[in-house]
Amino acid sequence: MSGVVVAVSLLGCGGSELERAEVDATGRMDQAIVGGNEARPGSHPWIISLQQYGSHFCGGSLIRVGNRAESDIVLTAAHCIYDGTSRLTAVAGAHDLASPSSTQQVVSATKTVYHPAYNPDTTVNDIAVVVLAKPIKFSATVQPVCLPWDTVSAGSPSCGQSSSMRPTLVSQPSLAEPPRNPVGLVPGEASVPAENTMMIAAGWGLTSEGGAAYSNVLLQVGVPIVGSAALARQYSSQGITIFPEAMLGAGYAQGGKDSCQGDSGGPLVAKALPGYTLYGITSFGIGCARAGSPGVYTRVSNYRSWINAQIANNSRVQ
Ligand code: ARG
Fold it and tell me: Of all protein residues, whose CA lies closest to atom 9 belonging to ligand 1?
């Protein structure tokens, strides 16, 4: 079935013309992920560009693996690495892929592990780790993201610290104000973001459905969480099954703002305690930014034990 999803995603050109008229706080014309804006350099210090033969193909997120200020584990989507990973490298600390910064770090991958229950037909369990040949060192522009179960604890190294994330993304006057930080959480389920909680997706992917080229500069877009029932309803009408415990939807009913091809594997974060937290991994959609087809993200909180087992089995940072 995700044969359908992927085919639609990859070939779904010629969709609606996207509104690109908004101007962000700095006066720059809106450019996208789709409908987003350029991230301030260094404001998503956990984001990784996964590259093959020097070309970006997917995003990823650097996570904490121990008490040292470095990490050799990147989280991404299973569909990014499922078909092979020769000459895979991870680039950290990047902003403009066309003019590499002096502080960026490029490390090759030694191994990739996708979730054993990943199903390419349904895209369920779309999560994988990339194990790096050597650790990436944390710096002003390279930091790990927090995971949904991380708590504030004295003495442990920090996560999710963005020195300069632009505070907000273009607001949507037609919608109620999103909850203030820290992120709105479902009562009793500390790591599950509630409907309408504002999330930020980021990546170097296409800036319009069917677009011709990836973005050189890192783009970001704010998208609210869509409730699981609504998400399942919207996708079932298109013949696609949503697994609510494993998937998270985010986007506007009217479309216009979304992640897109090339953003896959990258982060969906929200500001929380102890820092920006990875709630989702960009997974799939029908086209990009279409009304009624929110982006679908892997629900990271569902994979705590699997992620911890991958760190224990594969990380050489202790
Ligand atoms: N599957 C796409 C990729 O490989 C990401 C799709 C996200 N699509 C969306 N409409 N949010 O890059």
Answer: 285
The single-letter code of the amino acid at 226 is V
CB 264 within 8 A of CB 59: yes
Report whether residue 205 contacts ligand 1, using a CB cutoff of 6 Å.
yes
Ligand 1 atom closest to Cα of 262?
Answer: 12
The pTM for the full model equals 0.85
Q: Is 298 in the pocket of ligand 1 (CB under 6 A)?
A: no
Tell me the two tokens of residue 197: 């909680």
**CB of 261 shorter than 6 A to ligand 1:** yes
Diameter of the chain measured on Cα atoms: 52
Q: List, by residue number, the catalytic residues.
A: 79, 126, 264
For the chain (length 318 residues), average pLDDT per consecutive 10? 36 26 32 82 96 96 94 98 92 96 95 97 98 96 94 75 63 37 51 88 94 93 96 96 97 97 97 92 97 97 96 94
**CB of 260 sitting under 6 A from ligand 1:** yes
pLDDT of residue 236: 96
- 262 pocket-lining for ligand 1 (C-beta < 6 Å): yes
80 CA: nearest ligand 1 atom: 4
DSSP H helix total and E strand total for the chain: 4, 15
Kindly write down the DSSP assignment for every residue of 64-119, as one continuous string: --SSSSEEEEEEE-HHHHTT--TTEEEEES-SBTTS--TT-EEEEEEEEEE-TT-B
Q: Sort strands 55-62 and 277-284 into parallel, antiparallel or unpaired.
A: unpaired
Phi then psi dihedrals of residue 182, to 5 deg:
-65, 165
Q: State both tokens at 78.
A: 């299973």
Distance CA 126, CA 289 (A): 20
In sequence order, what E strands does 152-232 have? 185-186, 189-193, 198-203, 219-226
Under 8 Å between Cβ of 182 and 204 = no
At residue 47, what are phi and psi to the nearest 5 degrees? -75, 140
Structure tokens at 184: 């709105």
User: CATH class for domain 5-314?
Assistant: mainly beta
> Ligand 1 center to residue 282 CA distance, Å?
6
